[in-house]
Design brief:
The chain has one domain (3-50). Helix content is 71%, strand content 0%. The protein is built from 3 helices and no strands. The longest helix is centred in the middle third of the chain and has 16 residues, at 15-30. It starts with a helix and ends in a 6-residue tail after the last helix.
């Protein structure tokens, strides 16, 4: 079952509710999550290699 199918089942014929759920799902479709921990590690590694980030 896809998210859109699930939304249709949850809304159960209520057009206003269905529209709200579809808008919410569209917002999630636009969101691209990132791995912030991995990104921070890459930045820290780069800074250490350049000698511009002191660990002490």
């Amino acid at each position: 079952m896809t998210a859109r199918e699930l939304i249709g089942e949850i809304a159960d014929g209520d057009e206003n509710l269905l529209g709200k759920y579809q808008k919410a799902l569209t917002r999630f479709d636009l969101f691209s999550p990132i791995n912030a921990t991995k990104l921070r590690e890459q930045v820290a590694t780069h800074m250490v290699e350049r000698g511009e980030y002191s660990l002490t």
